[in-house]
Amino acid sequence: VLPSKASFSLHSILVQHYLWGAWYPKGGSGEIVFRTIPIIQKAGGNVLGRAPVQSILLDSRGRACGVSVKKGQDVVNIFAPIIVSDAGIFNTYERLLPPEARALPEIQSRLRMATHGEGGFCVFVGLRGSSQELGLEATNYYIYSDNNLDQIMRRYYNSSRDEAAANLPLLFVTSPSAKDPTWEMRYPGKSTLSIITMAKYEWFEEWKDKPVHKRGDAYEDIKKTFVDAIMQTVFKLYPQIEDKVEYVSGGSPLTNQHYIASPRGEFYGMDHDMARTQIEAIATARPQTAVPNLYLTGQDVAVCGFAGALQGAFLCTSAILNRNIYLDAMQLRKRVQDSNGKKKN
Question: Which keywords label this protein (predicted)?
């Protein structure tokens, strides 16, 4: 959000998180999923791919009792005593719940307190040459066009679609390949960059009903204006890569909508303005819902990002088990530390 709309407490949490440094999973972010799935399966669960949830099923008493998922052309009902949704508050309440549950006063009250976060635009770059050869670093760059962040953001958001690319206020530039110590072994002589900026959903909304990769030349032309403007700044940061680019792909808010089901192409779910950290909003943002047996987890329960989503999971687990999982985690950490100390001795 704009600095003038940002919560000091939320910003402090973010800064404190990074004071200890940041981490990157060996093998890329996909490793988080690959390492988690066997744990779920070992506990008797399963993970379904390419099976998007169509709706949350309710029994005759209005309790959540399962989900319907699409598998190919068929819709399959899967029943369970407890349903946990990580789809975000808007998808869960506005799209997946049936109308009678959606109309519940508690659900509507929660939705009135929530607003969509800003949409985002991404550029993914494939390069010829290793990170070492190209001078790519395992760091994050935040590049601003001016020191007055509120002013440049307002100017950007007030731009027309055709003017927006010329008014880019900020870029986040990073090299995933430089951060991953296993990358060079897996993809020798190749490197990557990821670049992110903000973008209004409305600039791309007219193509929202078109299928991915089939949105037409006009849509691709608009995306290209953003990609070209972004790459001009990237080349100023890394001039040595200009003739090493082998692949460039841009992703609009509609891309985010397609791949991560964000309703308006937002990166981080609900908006993170000051309203989100008000007492009533915090007290209401909890895993328990007005629908019995339905729980929420993830960043819309806590705050944004991986660490925020993890907090949402801790809160959700604690609510379901009626147990303080944070204390369990602290005790587990102590046992691991004691065990490691004995091994060293």
Answer: Endoplasmic reticulum, FAD, Flavoprotein, Lipid metabolism, Membrane, NAD, NADP, Oxidoreductase, Signal
